[in-house]
Amino acid sequence: MANSSKSTTGGLEGVIAADTVMSLVDGERGRLVFRGHNLEQLAGRQVEDVAALLWRGDLPDSAGREVIRAALAEGRIEAFRRLPTLGDALVAADGMDALRASIAHLPSPTSSSAELEGLSRGTEGAFLAGAMAVFAAAFWRRTLGQPVVPPDASLSHAEDYLRMMQGEPPSREALRALSTYLITVADHGMSASTFAARVVASTGSDAVSAVVAALCALKGPLHGGAPGPVLDMLDAVGTAERAESWLLGELAAGRRIMGMGHRVYRVRDPRAAVLEGAVETLERSGSAGGRLGLARAVERVATQILSERHPDRALRANVEFYTAILLDSLGISRRMFTPTFAVGRVIGWYAHIEEQRATGRLIRPASRYVGPDPGS
Ligand code: COA
């Protein structure tokens, strides 16, 4: 095959596909910046603050936070109102299939705004973010065979998401950990899903279509689908003493270690540290499941083994490694890990969709033909 899978152009490494003000992913120094703010400075705030930052450009004051909070609440209520019209879209074995189908049912806000009368103060982004949370939670309630929980407009977005999923309001510690998670994953430069959203937005298509494309990309295990397998790995490893033999067995079988490695970071993913810290806080409050010690041991051994095998390529823990333990500690099923990622990332997707629209430019790269030449 002329174009092998090891092609250096195949993954577009290092190719700059857009100018963005949304986030800086500094792979050499291990820094993640959202619109001028280091992730570490934002991680303790509310999801509403980061939505305001990415959508409007500044961290809000308390009045501004209320506006975003109300818009997200209206988005959730409007999405909930649409549940009966979704048919079987939420009946799926896989949460991402359910999200893809249910989000695809939404009217395109740009082309049919008359259908969104209920969303008086809302924005398109808040509508999509509200829908993601409501549909993800509703999918899970139906999977459990339990009644769907309607949104509560008085709650913050993160609090309501966990309540709609679990049927009861979260503890203060759980809410703080989930907020940290949703903020941490809200944006990440030109990730595969963000690029997919921008490509679709660049064609002049609507935001619903762009978000559906992003969901499809996020579903893959090389992007958003890894945290479930990370937890499977910790289950299979069982104890720190078994980590080395288990990991060597995986590599001998030709499999990758989930939650390790990253396309951009050449140091440890800064998001791993933020989430690891959030799990540590949860464990100290007695709310987490006590897996942090095992996870740290597995990470240590995996880092060691991978650095011996790939001395020129730093393969360190990525965001998904500690995502797995954090979400598991909150009582979120591993089947809901990637949908919960989507609940956070849709905030960034929408910011990029707007940014791409503003350029008015179609994304249409070139390919290099490496097939046979028929001659003249
Ligand atoms: N475990 C074992 N080996 C790994 C590895 C992992 N997690 N990640 C990369 N490698 C190896 C590759 O097999 C390759 O080896 P080779 O040169 O001998 O063929 C080498 O490291 C370079 O990997 P490459 O495929 O160029 O990295 P990438 O930038 O394309 O991939 C990921 C980045 C994230 C897709 C990759 O690290 C991976 O598959 N990680 C596991 C899945 C995961 O955690 N995804 C979540 C990402 S946030």
Q: Topology, please?
A:
Blueprint: E1 23-26, E2 31-34, E3 37-38, H1 39-42, H2 47-56, H3 62-81, H4 95-104, H5 124-144, H6 157-166, H7 172-184, H8 192-202, H9 207-218, H10 227-237, H11 243-252, H12 270-284, H13 292-309, H14 319-329, H15 337-359
Antiparallel strand pairs: 1-2, 2-3
Helix pairs in contact: 2-3, 2-15, 3-5, 4-5, 4-9, 5-6, 5-15, 7-12, 7-15, 8-9, 8-15, 9-15, 10-14, 11-13, 12-14
Could you characterize the architecture of this molecule?
53% of the residues lie in helices and 3% in strands. It has helices at 39-42, 47-56, 62-81, 95-104, 124-144, 157-166, 172-184, 192-202, 207-218, 227-237, 243-252, 270-284, 292-309, 319-329, 337-359; strands spanning 23-26, 31-34, 37-38. It is built from 15 helices and three strands. A three-stranded antiparallel sheet has the order 1-2-3. The model is unreliable at 1-6 (pLDDT under 50). The radius of gyration is 21 Å and the shape is globular. Helix 8 (192-202) runs antiparallel to helix 9 (207-218). By secondary structure, the chain is mostly helical. Coenzyme A binds at residues 11, 222, 226, 256-263, 306, 310, 313, 315, 318-320.
